[in-house]
Write a structure and sequence with these properties.
Structural Genomics Hypothetical 15.5 Kd Protein In mrcA-pckA Intergenic Region, Chain A, Alpha-Beta Plaits, 4-stranded antiparallel sheet, 15 strands, 3 domains, alpha+beta, 23% helix
Length: 231
């Protein structure tokens, strides 16, 4: 098995992040620093990160969390603020979020120790759909502005892909995007003249929050994980 894949399966990080850890010289095999992510390793290769030998591949798990506003989408925070990993609280596994929701955005976020799956779910090539409910400022949203969101909005980092958008009320929309740009929905809405007042992700691929209340989480079943892999 490639070293980067071994680290991802051990729950250290996604495959891409594991490659960066290796290239930075933080990983050793049998006591020798290795900087090649393609290095072959086995079950008894004594792979260590920052001098700590890894126990080997962990059981793969995926949790779905209804993130409250104010909680950070990261594994650790140097200022001691609440994170999504704190809310799941499965300390025996190295969980990390799949993508990010900014602190003021609530709703569905996945956490896993399956680096390969996490990488596929956030990679732009796979265009995994994500649905949000947005409450907007700036008066009633017009059909012309809805059409602009559907056709694509030009942001400072380029034109967005077409989105699925429907009005829920004069100041509330549901929008589905297939990209993962930073604060994308907020920036799209602001560009058409309607800054976001409140934003919540309601769907990730085939998954919806169901009855999960803010702060609650549950572990996905095998069938649900397979549906994610099929994306």
């Amino acid at each position: 098995m490639r070293l980067a894949k071994y680290l991802a399966h051990a729950g250290v990080a996604s495959r891409r992040s594991a490659e960066e850890l290796i290239r930075s010289g933080r990983v050793s095999v049998q006591g020798r620093t290795v900087t090649d992510p393609a290095q072959d390793v086995g079950e008894h290769s004594a792979v260590a990160l920052d001098g700590e030998v890894l126990a080997g591949p962990e059981p793969r798990v995926v949790h779905m969390l209804n993130k409250p506003v104010g909680v950070l989408s990261t594994a650790h925070d140097t200022h001691g603020r609440a994170t999504v990993v704190d809310l799941v609280g499965e300390h025996r596994l190295r969980l990390y979020p799949v993508g990010r929701l900014d602190a003021q955005t609530s709703g569905l976020i996945l956490l896993t120790n399956d680096g390969e799956l996490a990488n596929r779910l956030v990679h732009p090539r796979f265009e995994v759909p994500k649905t949000y409910r947005a409450t907007l400022r700036g008066g009633p949203i017009s059909e012309r502005e809805l059409r602009a969101l559907r056709e694509g909005v030009r942001l400072e980092d380029g034109l967005t892909l077409p989105a699925q958008v429907r009005a829920l009320s004069s100041r509330e929309i549901e929008i589905t995007i297939r990209e993962g740009r930073n604060r994308q929905v907020r920036r799209m809405c602001e560009q058409v003249g309607h800054p976001v007042l409140a934003l919540a992700r309601t769907r990730f691929g085939p998954l919806t929050l169901g009855r999960l209340k803010p702060g609650q989480h549950r572990r996905l079943g095998d069938a649900e994980v397979e549906r994610l892999r099929a994306l």
